[in-house]
Amino acid sequence: MTRDPIPLSSQDITQAEIDAVVAVMKSDRLSLGPRIGAFEEAVAARAGRKYGMAVNSGTSGLHLCVRALDIGEGDEVITTPFSFIATTNCVLFERATPVFVDIDPDSYNLDPAAIEAAITPRTKAILPVEVFGNTAHFDAYEQIARQHGLHLIEDCCEALGGVLGDRPAGSFGDCGVFAFYPNKQITTGEGGLIVTDSEDIRDLCVSMRNQGRGTDAWLEHARLGYNYRMSDINAAVGEVQMRRLDEILAGRRRAAAMYDDALQPLVDDGLLHLPPMTQREAASWFVYVIRLADRFTQADREAVMDHLKKEQIGCNCYFTPIHTQPYIMETLNTKPGDFPVTERIAARTIALPFFVALQQEQVTSVTEALQIALQETGR
Ligand SMILES: *Cc1c(COP(=O)(O)O)cnc(C)c1O
Q: Which CATH class, in words, describes the domain spanning 15-101+109-244?
């Protein structure tokens, strides 16, 4: 093969991020220093929120939201089986009960009608996800939460910079959580950030991320807490990445548009579906996930992915449905067949190589490999 391997994802780091890290390393504050506040302000402003609280991962952020809203044993939280596992785990951490409902096939986000049908007297919160960056239905979720007196936690870990109408991702419900693992739109290496307008949620998260400390003495602990702090080294990277966010999102939209064009003939031939995305012209793309037509089986999908990998093209199957993960089936008594829309879609998705520096030749190579692999299935 003459071309280089094409990775699934790749971070977009410039000399400015490197310089920012070096500056922190030469300062006297590696943690609990000034870069944290600057990064928090930038993300909160982008989400249209008053407060931002940086933490060491998106998962930690979701966990603190669950605790700050006093969600615990006996409480039900309606959430999606089509997500990254952390969405469910943060509920299980507090011995509350995740209640899965199925997704809307046109957006891959939770189906609002299914949420309403699942509300019981024990329901305390709704925890939806902007799957792959798609902001669809978040206004509806907010309305449902308000009508039924429920909390709404927005898992916007995949949607930084996205919009629904004129509302930014992160602005819905009680609080939202962003994440900064290297495959996200922006990265801090590892990291997460909670946004909210509530002073109570802010105070609780600030305390709990820092060992449950109150506001005064270093060794006074007001409540059960954790070490979920982000370091200033990570925050400095995030601060520069936030300054570059619009440029990064534009680069990702450019990459998505190249795929949209290149793959349209395969769509016209009935082979696959392009990723659903609300407001494509302003969208925040996390990953570019195609879906094979329904006549292809899960085994066909694996064969297509094997072919891509053989061609050194990075790919992945986002997501294995959460309700079919073995320990979830054991804990929550779920089983394959419970959520047919999620399962039909999850069996046929393929995430393609996707990053700012993606080149047209790479998109062409991926498209050709896909075409050959689909032919080889014989369907
Ligand atoms: C990335 C992600 C998270 C958090 O991930 P961390 O690795 O803990 O930062 C949570 N939910 C979703 C939907 C995600 O994509």
A: alpha beta
The answer to whether residues 165 and 138 touch, using CB atoms and an 8 Å cutoff, is no
Q: Give 21-63 as a DSSP string.
A: HHHHHTSS-SBSSHHHHHHHHHHHHHTT-SEEEEES-HHHHHH
- Residue 122's identity, in one-letter code, is R
Cβ(76) to ligand 1 under 6 A? no
> Does the CB atom of residue 20 touch ligand 1 within 6 A?
no
Domains 15-101+109-244 and 246-376 share a fold: no
- Stated pTM of the model: 0.97
Three-class secondary structure of residue 274 per DSSP: coil
CA 58 to ligand 1 center in whole angstroms = 5
Atom of ligand 1 nearest to the CA of 191: 9
> What token pair was written down for 237?
């990277």
pLDDT tens digit string along 132-180?
999 999 999 999 999 999 999 999 999 999 999 999 999 999 999 999 9
Check residue 214 and give its pLDDT: 86
Confidence of residue 220 (pLDDT cuts 50, 70, 90): confident
Would you say 208 and 223 are in contact if contact means Cβ atoms under 8 Å apart? yes
Active site residues: 184
Q: Where are the domains of the chain?
A: 15-101+109-244, 246-376
Q: What is the mean pLDDT of residues 2-22?
A: 96
Question: Distance (Å, rounded) from C-alpha 183 to C-alpha 10?
Answer: 7
CA dihedral 40, 43, 47, 51 (to 10 degrees): 0
Cα 82 from Cα 107, distance rounded (Å): 11
The span from the CA of 211 to the CA of 38, in Å, is 22
Distance (Å, whole) CA 17 – CA 242: 11
Which parts of the chain fold into alpha helices (H)?
15-25, 34-46, 58-68, 86-92, 112-118, 138-148, 199-208, 232-243, 245-268, 298-310, 326-332, 340-346, 360-376
Superfamily of domain 246-376, CATH level 4: Aspartate Aminotransferase, domain 1 (3.90.1150.10)
Separation in Å, CA 10 to CA 162, 216, 237, 359? 20, 42, 16, 13
228 within ligand 1 shell (Cβ under 6 A)? no
